[in-house]
Write a structure and sequence with these properties.
The protein is 42% helix and 15% strand. It contains 14 helices and 16 strands. The strands form 4 sheets. An 8-stranded mixed sheet has the order 5-12-11-10-9-6-7-8, sandwiched between helices. A 4-stranded antiparallel sheet has the order 13-14-16-15, with helices on one face. Bound molecules: 4'-deoxy-4'-aminopyridoxal-5'-phosphate (PMP). The site of 4'-deoxy-4'-aminopyridoxal-5'-phosphate (PMP) has 13 residues, from α6.
């Protein structure tokens, strides 16, 4: 059945997707369907009053200036000790927040985000990904990808629910789901990401054996942490087709989307999504500043409404000052300016990627294997002669080199235990040279033992 969301075009099969989320509850405001025992039960207690408070905050925020609001429990801005906030940019230009921006920056705002920033982000997503059925989707500002990741997982995953994850995968997922005792279904990867044949086979076998089917697959499609791969378009389409067939959501955690080193811009899962089953996470952490703690989630509007409530219950909203500064940057640079900035970053990190690859080649030849990363921040090195790099990398600390052992990126010891993740973002070229030399020495000693 196709359901029309208010004021928006039809999102085919949205009802099927909604059944994954229990979103009937969100839209009808009645406890007609249980969320199961996931963290999102938070929505059951205090749900209605808190949701109403959030909606009231939105109304009050956008009311005409002539409206006298005695509604919100906001402190008076006159009491804040700041009178001016200015920002200097690397190109020598600068901006100062005007009175309205300053007042907004220091205050509470509606949970979904600073409205002018939300507007800019909607325009940005439309231009960057041209998502089909755009009017059926929405955006919520979060405090970085990790925040978005945890909110989405907590809202969707219930105790014992299975979720699909590529093996190896970003450990920020596991910390969120372990309290829920979620079952991780690990999908092996090759140099192009999760292998579709194995994914399909795994799901088929589960279905045949009457096993609980996963509601969601976690994906980190571009410049994957830790392997540095980019899932090619054909494989993305294949994974998406499988998601449609087996009715699960795709959570695309894509903070390195603009940090790819290929000529072609990767086509995101969001841009392929005809059914509203992609939850896309963007972050300004890698491309503007990690300390600004701003990211944004794009998904089907009912899911965003659910996440908004979840955010409201945890920290009301992402930091306003950061949101206002980010919006100002959008205004000053525009879409083109931001893209030019991303292009500069790509050149910067690509050079570093090239240097560390050359140095790894120089020192690790015959000792270790690696692929030149196609995006992201990491070189993934495999040492065939070593079963588990954990002990070796502990020794590394006393030998003056720190890298992350591969076991940190997987649940159970697998073939990746022989891997190491080396970041190429901050070390000087001399330090990279020394680090690779020290790693080679560590490997030699380990192999000799
Ligand atoms: N997802 C991935 C794949 C990451 O590598 C990181 C950062 N290491 C995050 C999420 C968290 O990023 P943020 O600063 O946006 O929360």
């Amino acid at each position: 059945m196709a359901v029309k969301l208010s004021g928006s075009p039809e999102l085919p099969r949205v009802e099927r997707i909604r059944s994954l989320l229990g979103l009937v509850l969100i839209r009808s405001m009645k406890l007609t369907k249980s969320f199961g025992d996931s963290r999102s039960i938070l929505l059951k207690c205090g749900f209605c009053s808190f949701k109403r408070e959030g909606e009231l905050a939105k109304i009050a925020y956008s009311a005409p200036k002539s409206t006298i609001s005695l509604a919100e429990g906001m402190p008076n801005e006159e009491t804040f000790p700041f009178t001016e906030i200015s920002v200097k940019l690397c190109d020598g230009s600068s901006f100062t927040l005007d009175d309205d921006e300053l007042a907004a920056a220091l205050q509470y705002i509606p949970t979904q985000g600073y409205p002018p920033l939300l507007q800019a982000l909607r325009e940005f997503q439309r231009r960057a990904h041209a998502p089909p059925l755009w009017e059926s989707r929405d955006i919520v500002v979060v405090s970085g990808s990790q925040d978005g990741l945890s909110k989405a997982l907590e809202a969707i995953i219930g105790t014992g629910d299975p979720i699909l994850v590529p093996d190896p995968f970003y450990p920020g997922v596991e910390v969120v789901i372990s309290p829920h005792k979620a079952e991780l279904i690990m999908i092996p990867q090759d140099d192009d990401g999760p292998i579709p044949e194995i994914l399909r086979e795994t799901l088929r076998n589960r279905e045949l054996s009457g096993g609980k089917m996963p509601k969601l697959m976690y994906i980190n499609a571009t410049g994957t942490n830790p392997t540095g791969i980019i899932i090619p378009l054909e494989r993305r389409k294949e994974i998406y087709r499988i998601a449609c067939k087996y009715n699960f959501l795709l959570l695309d955690d894509d903070p390195y989307h603009f940090m790819h080193f290929d000529k072609e811009e990767p086509k995101s899962f969001l841009s392929l999504d005809m059914e509203g089953r992609v939850i896309r996470l963007d972050s300004f952490s890698k491309v503007i500043s990690s300390g600004i703690r701003i990211g944004f989630m794009t998904a089907a509007a009912p899911l965003i409404a659910c996440i908004e409530l979840h955010l409201q219950s945890s920290h009301l909203h992402a930091p306003t000052l950061s949101q206002v500064i980010m919006h100002k940057l959008f205004k000053v640079w525009g879409y083109e300016g931001l893209m030019q900035h991303y292009m500069r970053l790509r050149r910067y990190y690509k050079e570093r990627r090239d240097v560390i690859s050359t140095l790894a080649h120089k020192h690790l030849n015959g000792l270790a294997e690696f692929n030149v990363p196609r995006g992201g921040f990491f070189l993934w090195i495999k040492v065939p002669g070593i079963k588990d790099t954990w002990k070796m990398m502990q020794r590394g600390v006393t030998e003056g080199v720190i890298m992350v052992p591969g076991a940190a990126f997987m649940r159970n010891p697998t073939k990746c235990s022989n891997a190491i993740r080396a970041s190429f973002t901050k070390a000087s070229y001399e330090e990279m040279d020394l680090a690779m030399e020290r790693l080679a020495q560590l490997i030699r000693v380990e192999l000799a033992e």
